TrEMBL record:
PANTHER family: DEOXYGUANOSINETRIPHOSPHATE TRIPHOSPHOHYDROLASE-LIKE PROTEIN, DEOXYNUCLEOSIDE TRIPHOSPHATE TRIPHOSPHOHYDROLASE
Residues in HD domain copies: 67-215
Sorted UniProt keywords: Hydrolase
Keyword Chaperone tagged: no
Record-given protein name: Deoxyguanosinetriphosphate triphosphohydrolase-like protein
GO molecular function: dGTPase activity
Gene3D superfamilies tied to this protein: Hypothetical protein af1432
GO biological process: dGTP catabolic process
Top-rank taxon, per record: Bacteria
PROSITE patterns found in the cross-reference section: HD (PS51831)
Similarity comment: family membership: Belongs to the dGTPase family. Type 2 subfamily.
Length: 402
């Protein structure tokens, strides 16, 4: 088959996959996972990521990460890990490229705001929204809604952060309070995704690549914005060691290059650690198939204990110093208001939705209208959300870090 190359026994094999919800003839030039990657890249939801917030709103500057550049960095790291472990790189890449498709405008602020707005109707979860996008909301094909992705890609999209149910069928900790999102359960009834099992090693590679990318680029962006200071990073032992190494190898290096050297060392250390630790765990498990990875009872593509602590310590530093910095929080409060205002306007007057979005809502109940509005707002870019707010509401905030 085109694109075939060496894989470990525990890797997902596209030639032996579980297929698609809607049967399609195989491609003569691409594996199923390569087709999935291409379909994701060509989707409207993927293009919209270019103007969705990571930490800093898009108009803060051209060099800050957006949700799209974050996704591309995750994809690159996932491929590197997958290659080192003998996994299917295309599947790891497809899952990485799709993992943030469900994020609304304004990053986690937008997600929190929509979750509050939709609390009476099942809430909002960006993983469930990504599944809705690739199985229902993209309208690119004549024969089906969504992208009709392979089972392995959908499994990775839904479960890359771990099982959603325990062995008794109860929601795991993340979903214990409110249950597994309805969109996931509805799709699982059509094509069971094994919600009580771990996902493939490829999905695990994509998930940990997300953590690595966050650590590195949020650190970089925070320093670039002047919210983080190099001098303060020595309080994080992991970073202190890297900064000492840079100083030893490159005395008196200017700040800009120091930041770049630090960022790439963060990525390198974490990637090398994951590959080593995953290799150790896989050797101990001795899996003969991808299903053996799924049934292992724990993730195998993980950090070692020392680097897991480094990951936690870095996140503990970034939480108050960056994510909850007063300037960032001020923008988050304004962004929250934009999302809530838009939701209120469109649910009160669905006729203000574009024609294709209000179709079929003439006699719809409150729940259906709210979910449709939630889908519409979740698909907005930061820029479009602000334009709509200016058109429909008074006193649209500037959303700039002062």
């Amino acid at each position: 088959m085109a694109g075939e190359r060496w894989r470990a026994d525990y890797a997902c094999d596209p030639a032996a996959g579980r297929g698609r919800l809607h049967a399609e003839a195989p491609s003569p030039t691409r594996t199923d996972f390569q087709r999935d990657r291409d379909r994701i890249v060509h989707s409207a939801a993927f293009r919209r990521l270019t103007h969705k917030t990571q930490v800093f709103v898009y108009h803060e500057g051209d060099h800050f990460r957006t949700r799209l550049t974050h996704t591309l960095e995750v994809s690159q790291i996932a491929r590197a890990i997958a290659r080192s472990l003998g996994l299917d790189e295309d599947l790891a890449e497809a899952i990485a490229l799709s993992h943030d498709l469900g994020h609304p405008p304004f990053g986690h602020t937008g997600e929190d705001a929509l979750d509050t707005c939709l609390a009476a109707f099942g809430g909002f979860d960006h993983n469930a929204q990504a599944l809705r996008i690739v199985t229902r909301l993209e309208h690119r094909y004549a024969a089906f809604d969504g992208l009709n992705l392979a089972w392995e890609t959908l499994e990775g999209l839904v479960k890359h952060n771990g099982p959603l149910l325990d062995e008794a069928g109860r929601p795991t900790e993340r979903y214990r309070a409110r249950g597994v999102p309805g969109a996931i359960l509805e799709y699982d009834a059509l094509q069971p995704l094994g919600l009580a099992l771990h996902a493939s090693a490829e999905a695990q590679a994509a998930a940990i690549a997300d953590d690595i990318a966050y650590n590195a680029h949020d650190l970089d962006d925070g320093l670039r914005a002047g919210i983080l200071q190099l001098e303060e990073l020595g309080s994080v032992p992991f970073l202190a060691g890297l900064l000492a190494e840079i100083e030893r190898l490159h005395p008196d290096l200017d700040a800009t290059r120091t930041v770049h050297e630090l960022t790439r060392r963060v990525i390198t250390r974490f990637v090398e650690d994951v590959v080593t630790e995953a290799g150790r765990r896989i050797s101990a498990l001795r899996p003969g198939s991808a299903d053996d990875i799924r049934a292992a009872g724990e993730a195998v593509v993980v950090f070692s204990q020392p680097l897991a602590e480094a990951d936690r310590s870095l996140k503990r530093h970034l939480l108050p110093k960056l994510y909850r910095h007063e300037k960032v929080m001020a923008v988050r409060r304004d962004a929250d208001r934009v999302v809530r205002d838009l939701f209120a306007v469109f649910t009160a007057s669905p006729s203000r939705l574009p024609a294709d979005w209000r179709q079929g809502l003439e006699d719809a109940d409150e729940a259906r209208i709210a979910r449709r509005v939630g889908d519409y707002i979740a698909g907005m870019t930061d820029r479009y959300a602000l334009l709509e707010h200016r058109r429909l509401c008074q006193h649209t905030p500037d959303l700039r870090i002062g």
